[in-house]
Amino acid sequence: MSTTTHDTPSPADVARLIDHTLLKPEATRADVAALVDEAVALGTYSVCVSPSMLPLAVPAGSDLKVAVVAGFPSGKHTSAVKAAEAAGAVAQGADEVDMVIDVGAARAGAYDAVEADIAAVRAAVPGTVLKVIIESAALSDEAIVAVCQAAVSAGADFVKTSTGFHPSGGATEHAVALMARTVDGRLGVKASGGVRTLDDARRMIAAGATRLGVSGSRALLEDGRPDSSY
Q: What is catalyzed by this enzyme (predicted)?
């Protein structure tokens, strides 16, 4: 892969921040096996899949991580269901969990409820990297800040912009920057949804993203061509 200046992440640098993602409901086990092979070949940080796809066969000697979603994509599951889903996934080998908050609760200003929801999942998977999907495109700036603060208080490891499935849209530089300022280095920030080109990825990183959710990783890393799969 090509190299770039020290100020601009190279494709290899970007790859190391990518959760190579396949969350389509029609995905098969064969599709996920191909995802794992592609992730290893591309040098991505992890794969992100549905919990029903576990356990995954990761090639021996690979340091590829396995992330799964919980309460996906609506976030309207009870906290007990999200916690059980997360714990079950970790028991089957997941290294990281990306949970969806109750976006309606956030929109209503019920931030204590959002914090309790995150805390329930945190308690179910101690020691596991926990990312909190806030669906930033559906929230006001005030709500984004409050939900990020709730994630910090509840002991999460990352805040994440989007599921990639919400009609309001995916990641924006504005949301990523606001999230990064709010967590102020205490949590990582994952930009997900609509990150389709190398330029997109670099803009998100410049805005403060420390992880990227991408499904069209090969197209992004090879030449930044738009990919319509996410």
A: 2-deoxy-D-ribose 5-phosphate = D-glyceraldehyde 3-phosphate + acetaldehyde
